[in-house]
Amino acid sequence: MKQVKTFLDTSVLLSVFGKVRNGSGRSYIIDTDQVERVTFEKCIFECFLAFRGVGGKKPDEGRQDWAKRFLRCKDDPIPLGDATGKLHAGSLIAAHYWVGQVDEAQWSVPETFDAYMGCVKKYVSKEDWPEAASDWEKFQRVFANHRRYQALFSEFRYFLSECGVFVLSYEILYEKSRQPWRLQTMEGVSQRSTVPSEDFEIVIAALLSEVDVFVSADRRLLTAAASIETNLKSCDFVHLEDIKSYIEAQE
User: Fold this and answer.
1) Alpha-carbon distance 213 to 235, whole Å?
2) Which 8-state DSSP code applies to residue 237?
3) In the predicted model, what is the mean pLDDT of residues 203-227?
4) Over the stretch 107-153, which tens digit does the pLDDT of each residue have?
5) 3-class DSSP state for residue 148?
6) Which of 56-65, 78-87, 173-182 has the highest mean pLDDT?
7) Nearest CA to 12 among 163, 181, 173?
8) DSSP for 63-86?
């Protein structure tokens, strides 16, 4: 039997990766040899945001609470919502600020407390030394959380590679797709469908990459996919729970 070219959207990636991480089982979609697995670069980026605790607008996708459900191990990173209280003394602004600044900051802060205090005593007023000294441990907790996130991102990429999921990049997608067909597809889906705007690029990627089936755990997206006009709908749209029976029916 020819392999079924299967597109895995963000909700599927989050579901199967989360279940593998917490030991609740593996999914048919990543274990069967009857499918060729493909996803889109945007799905990877959306997963990274979900790991951080930055969710989408639709509960069906599983993004909003993914971090709270699956990051429970002792060495797992602390997601944004919890980091506000645990790492940043309740400051939401500080929690957001450090997400973007920590990577550079960890290399500018001296590696040892003594070296750090040496800099403090050189540049900070003496009356502020105790407060600056207490900041040392805060910095170390923030830096450690950053390293845990980097490890999680690497773990996810390794998982995709191990499962044979090909990540379609923006460059590959738009370079290989014929311009007239790309324009027709994008205009058709945007003007004559009910596909939510946050899913638009991912649905377009699946249609342009000429997969056989688009797999999602988002039932509202699958319902909206029924609105895609027939001459543009180049693949079937199937829920993750139904993909096994779908594949078996192709035999």
Assistant:
1) 5
2) E
3) 95
4) 888 778 888 777 778 888 888 777 877 778 888 899 999 999 999 99
5) helix
6) 78-87
7) 163
8) -TTHHHHH--STTSPPPHHHHHHH
**Which pLDDT value is given to residue 129?**
79
Mapping DSSP to helix (H, G, I), strand (E, B) and coil, where does residue 163 land?
Answer: coil
* pLDDT confidence of residue 135: 79
Helix (H, G, I), strand (E, B) or coil at 214: strand
For the CA atoms of 47, 197, 39, 6, the dihedral, rounded to the nearest 10 degrees, stands at 130
For 248, other C-beta atoms within 10 Å of its C-beta total: 11
Find the DSSP H helices in the chain: 10-21, 28-31, 41-52, 66-70, 80-86, 92-108, 113-123, 129-162, 170-176, 179-191, 200-208, 219-224, 243-249
d(CA 153, CA 47): 9
Instruction: Please say if the pLDDT value at position 251 is more than 80.
Output: no
- For residue 67 the two structure tokens come to 């971090």
The Cα–Cα gap between 15 and 163 comes to 14
